[in-house]
Design brief:
The complex is a heterodimer of chains A (241) and B (151). By secondary structure, chain A is mainly alpha-helical. Chain A has ten helices and no strands. Helix content of chain A is 66%, strand content 0%. Chain A: This is Phenylacetate-CoA oxygenase subunit PaaI.
């Protein structure tokens, strides 16, 4: 087992699948500004994914580049967390997902910026600046919807309840990794507790903790997402425009 | 080289924007080596920027130039030159305020309207026409404008 390869792959797959999901909002967001915002966040995620997958390919040393890793793997070979492959749901679900993802990625990339691996450190230093904007954006929406109308509060609470079981997988201990995700949990908890409190939302209590993404065992949603993402490259290998 | 402009903010050269990091000559081969860095990781303009640099160098007699892309240290809006800031404002794009500690989103207090200079402005959306810009509106003259986000 190649430790750093697996680690870079996990982070790269998280970002890639998050990018693909967020891009589904393009032309369908509630307002034009949000359409632009979600597309921009998707682009940031894609940028980080490209750097991480390129590096993962080099670490593996089997000649796979970013395209080979993104387009030519089946679902069982993806190492993303389940959270990012879940369907977008309504806008509240998308914002709950983005809150969790960005509150996880920000301390992760920040820790990465100080790690011994120079490539990972450079990627972390770059991506954390963008994550700070993603966290800011999702926090504002969760607060606005949670502390909004009766209906927006109800739907935001339902979204948070729906997404919360998937948090545990993000912080599963991995002491051998360049950054052990378990060490990031206190900062995550503090960040989201503040947001939920200001949003007048109740922190969900859940004992169900689905996992498996890091081992390639995914929900059925990932297969459909990959089918759409990979179809062009598989039909026309190396297609460019 | 100094004349290559950013494809999405055409009033700025890549040097003024701070994405041109170095121009060296490889002592062994004599080839020109240009080092650039992206503003945002997903910046879709990088391919066009590389092509524009290649074209400019070929025109200047260096068709064999090598272009390297680096991600460290990460680009910051603090690298935009003074002349760059002045050109941004003149083009109707409010320049960024200085960046605070790393990882913290800087508070952009009183972004001034690039048209009328009023500090009475409000943010419409923190994500704008390109990854590096936010959309703002002036409450004095009612004009919307782009603001280059501090990063």
């Amino acid at each position: 087992m190649n430790g750093p390869f697996e680690f870079a792959l996990r982070l790269g797959d998280d970002a890639l699948i998050a990018a693909q999901r967020l891009a589904e909002w393009t032309t369908r967001a509630p307002e034009m500004e949000e359409d632009v915002a979600l597309a921009n966040i998707a682009l940031d995620q894609l940028g980080a994914a490209r750097l991480l997958l390129t590096y993962a390919g080099e670490l593996e040393g089997a000649g796979r580049d970013e395209d080979a890793l993104a387009y030519l793997r089946g679902d069982r070979e993806f190492r993303n967390c389940l959270l990012v492959e879940l369907p977008n749901g309504d806008f509240a679900v998308t914002m709950a997902k983005l809150l969790v993802l960005s509150a996880y990625q920000l301390p992760l990339y920040t820790a990465l910026a100080g790690c011994a691996d120079e490539r990972l450190a450079a990627i972390g230093a770059k991506a954390r600046k963008e994550s700070a904007y993603h966290l800011d954006h999702s926090s504002l929406w969760v607060k606005r919807l949670g502390d909004g109308t009766e209906e927006s509060h109800r739907r935001m609470q339902a979204a948070v309840d729906q997404v919360w079981p998937y948090v545990a997988e993000l912080f599963a201990p991995d002491p051998a990794a360049p950054i052990d995700p378990a060490t990031l949990r206190p900062e995550f908890d503090a960040t989201v507790a503040d947001v939920l409190a200001e949003a007048t939302l109740t922190p969900p209590e859940t004992s169900w903790a689905p996992a498996g993404g890091r081992d390639g065992v995914h929900t059925e949603h990932l297969s459909y997402l990959l089918a759409e993402m990979q179809v062009l490259h598989r039909a026309h290998p190396g297609a460019a425009w | 080289m100094a004349a290559v402009v950013d494809p999405e903010i055409r009033v700025l050269t890549i040097d003024e924007l701070g994405i041109l990091r170095a121009v060296d000559e490889d002592p062994a081969s004599g080839r020109v080596v240009v080092t650039i860095t992206p503003t945002y990781t997903g910046c879709p303009a990088m391919d066009v920027i590389r092509a524009d640099i290649r074209r400019a160098l070929a025109a200047a007699g260096h068709p064999e130039a090598e272009i390297r892309t680096v991600h460290h240290p990460a680009w910051s809006t603090d690298w935009i030159s003074e002349s760059g800031r002045a050109k941004l404002a003149a083009a109707g794009i409010a320049p960024p305020s200085p960046v605070g500690a790393p990882g913290v989103v800087a508070l952009t207090l009183a972004v001034r309207c690039p048209r009328c200079g009023s500090p009475e402005t409000e943010q419409l959306s923190r994500f704008g026409s390109t990854a590096c810009k936010a959309l703002w509106r002036c409450r004095s003259c009612s004009e919307p404008f782009d603001h280059l986000k501090a990063l």
